[in-house]
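Lab notebook, bench 4. Still working through the backlog of constructs that have no structural model yet. Next entry is a single chain of 171 residues. Request: give me the structure tokens for it.
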Amino acid sequence: MKTWFKNISGFIINLFKRLMPASIQSKDLSKVFNYHDIEDLFTTSGQPNAYQLKLIAENGYDAVINLAPKSVFEGSVISEAEILTANNVKYIHIPVNFNNPVKDDFSLFIKKLNENKDKKIWIHCAANMRVSAFVYKYRRDVLGLEDKQVIKDMELIWSPNRAWNTFINNN
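Model written out:
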């Protein structure tokens, strides 16, 4: 319950942070909402704002995968593809329905990771909840890592609800 409160309040605060001028925003990428680094794989977070997307490019990321649907409520930056493309970063959008994650979305996620395996990748959604579940499932089912090795990273972000537990535990 604590992580749900943290994510909801953080999501709302993040909406307001997007209105701040770039001159007063942090240049530290770890300040992106729900930032989490998966050592030797990729970086994950909630929705970066326009300034943070430029920082991602400046920090050498080659690709950004966005798992959030394109909507203002979900926190999607309307011009995200344009910002990243203009900064020579590959933009990959896989809109995952939060209430109904499906195997096809996960299969596409795996395909895109494989296509970009030698690149520095940033993966995000609105609050890093979709992402943390996809990354957990990827590390457990595809990379073959032990559950106890990878579950903690997801639990730092949230405790999945019934729909997500069903998705995570089905092949």
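Notes after review: The longest helix spans residues 2-17. The mean pLDDT is 88. Flag for follow-up if needed.
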